[in-house]
Amino acid sequence: MSRPVRRGLLALALLGMAAPAAFAQTFPTRPLSIVVPFAPGGPTDTVSRLVAEAMGRDLGQNVVVENVGGAGGTLGSNRVAQARPDGHTLLLHHIGMATTPTLYRRLPYDPVAAFEPIGLITEVPMSLIARPNFPANNLADVVAVMRQRREELNYANAGIGAASHLCGLLLMSRVDAPMTTVPFRGTGPAMQELLAGRVDLMCDQTTNTTEQIRGNSVRAYAVTTPQRLPTLPDLPTSAEAGLTGFEVSVWHGLYAPRNTPAPIIARLSQSLQTALRDPRLIARFAELGTAPVAQDQATPAAHRTFWLADIAKWRPLIQAAGQYAD
Ligand code: ASP
C-alpha cells in the first residue's frame, strides 16, 4: 500500500473513531424544543417546564416547551415522530405512551418504533378532586352521588389514553357507576372548567392539584397512592377513604425521534440526569408531591425496559375491556 493511501486510510479510521464524540460535542447547535402532548397549565406541562429549564442550563441552549395537545397525547407524539432526528425536537410524555399503543389502532406513526427513549423522569401520584360546590364531603359521599346520579355527572379528562382517563375508568369500575366524560386537550384547561363549576369531577396528578387543594379552590377526596403525601397530609389515601384498588401513579419519560444518533441520545440522557439532580428542580418537584426517579432509571436502557413492560401490562387489560379510541 502506498504511503498516501495508508495515511488516507488511517485518517479515515481516526475520523470514524472520533466522529461520535465530536458529534456529541457540537450538539446542540441551536435551541431545543420539548413537545408536550397536552395543553399548557397541566401536569405534563409543569414537569416539562422544570426539566426544560434544568436541561437548558446543562446544555447551554434554551429548551423551549411546545404544547401540542389533543387526542389523548397522540397529536403531539405524532409531531415528534415526524420531526428531524437530530436531537433538537423531543417529546415529554407520560403513562399514555404505554396505553395508546393498544388503545389507538390507527395511529399515523408506529407508537413504539417511532421513538428512542432517553430516560425516565418521575412518577407522580394522582388525586380525586371536584368542583368547589360538589355535594360530597368525603369519598364515601362521592361514591353515593356517583351511584345515584351516574351519567348526569361530568368527569373531565385529557382524552382517551390520558392519565386522567385511566384514573376515571378505574374509579367508575371500582364504584360500578358510569359518568359522562368530557375530554379536554389537557387537564390544565379542564381544571379551569372545574374551578368554574362547569364539570363535576376529575382525577389529576398532584403536580396540577396540590396548590388548588391547599388553597381550597377545589374539593379533594383522596390520593391514589398506598401512603399519604407529606405535601397533603390531611388528604386520605383512597384505601383509607374506603375504596380499595383505586391506586394509580403516572410515570413520565423523555423521547427523541427514531434514528437520532446514539451519541446525541447519550448526551441528552446525561443532561436529563444532571437536570434531575438540580436542587431547584428537586425542590419544586417536592412541593408538587413528587421526586425525580433514581439516577439509573434516567437512562435509555432502563426507560425502554420499563416502557415495554408497561405496554405489555396494559395491553390485556385494554383488550379485555374492548374499548378502543378509534
Ligand atoms: N394530566 C393529564 C392527563 O390526564 C395530561 C396533562 O394535561 O398533563 O394525562
Automatic annotation (TrEMBL):
Signal peptide start and end residues: 1-24
Keywords: Signal
Domain of life: Bacteria
Keyword Kinase tagged: no
Keyword Signal assigned: yes
Gene3D superfamilies hit by this protein: Bordetella uptake gene, domain 1, Periplasmic binding protein-like II
Pfam families documented for this protein: TctC
PANTHER family assigned to the protein according to its UniProt record, in alphabetical order: BLR1237 PROTEIN (PTHR42928:SF5), TRICARBOXYLATE-BINDING PROTEIN (PTHR42928)
Family of the protein in this entry: Belongs to the UPF0065 (bug) family.
Protein name: Tripartite tricarboxylate transporter substrate binding protein BugD
